[in-house]
Amino acid sequence: MSKNFNKLIPIFLVLFFSSILIIDPLLKKGIFTAHDIETNITYFGAFYNSLTEGNIFPRWSGNIANLYGSPTSMFFYPFSYYLSAPIRLLGFSLIDTTKIYLFLTFIGSSLFMYLWLKRHVNTLSAVLGAILYVYAPYRINDIYARGSVAENTAFVFVPLVVYAIDLLWEKLSIKRMIFLALILAAFILSHPFMLIVFAPFYLLYLLFLKPNLRKIIYLTASSVFSLLVTAFYTIPLVFENKYTHYDISPFNGKGYAEQFLTIEKLIMPVWNFIDIKGKLEYQTYQIGLLQIGLFLISIISLIFLWRRKGQRQKVMFLPILGIINFFLSIFLMLPMSDFVYKIFSFLQRIEFPWRYLALNLFAVAVFTGGIFNLLHQTMTKIAILAVMLLGFYLYLPYSKGHDYKTISDDYYLYNIKENTDGFATLPKWAAQPDSYDRKPDRYKVISGEAKLTPLFRTSTKHIFIVEATTTSRIADLTFYFPGWNVFLDKKPVDIEFQDPNYRGIITFNVEEGRHLLEVVFTNTKVRQLADTISLSSIIFICIAYIYADKIQKRLHRYSGL
C-alpha cells in the first residue's frame, strides 16, 4: 500500500502545482476578459444545442450571427466542444463549463507530460519537466489573454502523441496502432495548426528512434486511420471553406509576416496590460526568464556531460532533441525565416509565427528533464524547488483573470448580434450580421399575402404551415449556405439568396393555398462522403480492436508484420 502511495506522490505534486496557475477562474464568478473566450463560449453553446438535437457532427450554428445562423460549427475545431459536452450535460452554465474544461485541460496537459517523460527519465526529472510544461508565459497568455480553448486542448495531446509512439515502438501491435491513430485524430480535431507547429519535434523524435520498415508501416497506418476518422471535419474544411468569407479574412494566412517577433520581444519579460484597441489583456511574447535560465544551465551541463566517457549515448536523446527544437522554434518566429514560410506555404496557415512559443516551451521541458536525469537527484530536487519559487514569483501574479463579468446563457445562445470571429466563417453571400434587422420570429412575407404558423424548429429544420391567399414570396431569415433546401408539400422549391434587399438570406416563392413548408439543412455530397468515411472508419477500427489478436496472428503468419 505504501509503495503504491509513494508512486502517486509525484502525480499529486504535478497536479497540485499545475492547478495553482488555473485556480483563479474557479474561485470567481463569471468569465474573465480575453480575446477569444466569449467566442468559444458562444460557439460551444451553438455546438451543444445542435448536438442535443441529434446531429452527431454539428455544422450549422443556428442562433448566432444576429439569429441568422452561420456554418461556424463546420469549420471551428470541434474536439474541445465534444469533450465539454458532458460537463454541460451535468447542468453547469456555459461559462462554468468553459472554466471547468480549461482547468481540466491545463492540469491534464502537465499530467500527460509527466507520464511521457517518466518513460525516459527518473521520477524527479519527469516532475520537473511536467511543471515546466505549464509554468511558462505562453501557457498563461494562452488562457488569460487569448482565451484559446482549442490550443489548451491541443497541449493535452502533444505529449500523448509521443507517448503513443513509444508504446507502438515498444511493441508493434494493432491495438497500439489504433491507440496512436485515435490520439492523432484527437489532436487534429483539437487544433490542426498546432500539429503543424509540433511537426518538427515529432519528425526529429522519430529519427532519433531509428524506425525500421515494419515500424514505418504501422506508423503510416496510424496516420492514415487518423485522417479517415477526422474526414467529417477536414474534408468540408478543405472543400467548402470557399463558400465563406475566409478569403478576405485577416486570419487566412495572408498577414503572417506582420506577426513575426524580435529577439527583444522574446527575451524581455514584458506583460502588456493594454492592447492597441485599449482592451485589457496579459499579452506577452516572451520565452520566459526561468526558461532562458534553464536553457543556459542545460547548455553548460551538456558540455560538461559530453566530455564524460560513456555519457554521450544518453546525452544524445532528449536534451539534444529539446535544444534543437528550442533554436528551431526561435528561428521560425523571427523575420529571417520568412523564406521558409514562402517555400512551405502551408505554414502560413498557422496565422501567427509566435505560435511556435508552444514548441519552445515544450522543448524547454524536454531538455531540462533530459539534462537533470543525468545529474544527481539532489540537484534535481534543488531545481524543482527553485522552479517552484521562481515560477510563483515570475508567473503567479499574471495567472489570474481580470474584468470578470457574469453573463447569462441566453446571451451567448440568442443575443450575439455579430459573428464573434468577424467575417471568417460567414457565408460569402452575407454581409455583417448586425447590418440586418433582428427578427425574433425569424421569417418574413416579402410580397403577396400569406400567413405562416410555425410548427417545429431546430437549428437545422424549420417547419411551418403556410396559408397563402396569393402567390407570395417568403424569406426564412437564415443565411444561405450549401445544404439548405426548401420543400413545399415535400417537393423542392428553388431558393434565391442574392437579392440585394435580402443579401445572403434564403428567399423563395409559395403558390396560393395551404401548404406544409420545410426549410432543412442537409448534407451536401461532400459532407455525405466525409461522414461516410469517418463513420465507416470508426466502425472498422472498433471491429479491428475487438479482433486485434486474431488479425495480428494472421498478419504475422503471412507477412511478418
Structural description of this entry:
This protein has helices at residues 2-20, 24-27, 37-52, 72-75, 79-89, 94-117, 123-134, 137-144, 149-170, 174-190, 192-197, 199-209, 213-229, 231-239, 263-267, 289-306, 312-315, 318-331, 338-343, 357-372, 377-395, 409-414, 525-546, 548-559; strands at residues 272-274, 280-283, 443-447, 450-457, 461-468, 472-479, 484-488, 491-493, 505-510, 513-521. It is globular and about 95 Å long. The chain has 561 residues and is of the alpha+beta class.
List the helices and strands and how they pair.
Blueprint: H1 2-20, H2 24-27, H3 37-52, H4 72-75, H5 79-89, H6 94-117, H7 123-134, H8 137-144, H9 149-170, H10 174-190, H11 192-197, H12 199-209, H13 213-229, H14 231-239, H15 263-267, E1 272-274, E2 280-283, H16 289-306, H17 312-315, H18 318-331, H19 338-343, H20 357-372, H21 377-395, H22 409-414, E3 443-447, E4 450-457, E5 461-468, E6 472-479, E7 484-488, E8 491-493, E9 505-510, E10 513-521, H23 525-546, H24 548-559
Antiparallel strand pairs: 1-2, 3-6, 4-5, 5-10, 6-9, 7-8, 7-10
Helix pairs in contact: 1-6, 1-7, 5-6, 6-7, 6-9, 7-20, 7-21, 9-10, 10-13, 12-18, 14-23, 16-20, 18-20
Helix/strand structural class: alpha+beta
Q: Low-confidence stretches at least 5 residues in length (pLDDT < 50)?
A: none
Number of helices: 24
Helix content: 40-55%
Provide the spatial order of strands within the biggest beta sheet.
4-5-10-7-8
Number of strands: 10
- In one word, what is the shape? globular
Averaged pLDDT, please?
89
CA-atom Rg in angstroms: 26 Å
Task: Report the portion of residues in β strands.
Answer: 5-15%
Distance between the termini: 41 Å
The major beta sheet can be summarized as:
5 strands, antiparallel
